[in-house]
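During the no-cost extension, the postdoctoral fellow (Dr. R.K.) reprocessed legacy sequence entries with the updated structure-token encoder. One reprocessed record is reproduced below for audit purposes.
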Amino acid sequence: MPKMKTRKSAAKRFSKTGGNKYKRKNAGMRHNLEGKPKKAKSGLIKTNYVHKSDVARVKKMLPYSQ
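Re-encoded structure tokens follow.
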């Protein structure tokens, strides 16, 4: 059987942690930051985890992250 290909766009966006979770960045920190309050911007800096309903989808895109 041939090797499975990793979705490179997903590999750049998600990374696996030691506890079998997937890390992701928050959207909304590229531009139009003047209109956002400081509290909102500081909340967007932090990393989040992929929701449990989307984990199967991310695993399929990253076959060798296991």
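DSSP finds three helices and three strands in the chain. The mean pLDDT is 96. The remaining legacy entries will be reprocessed before the final report is submitted.
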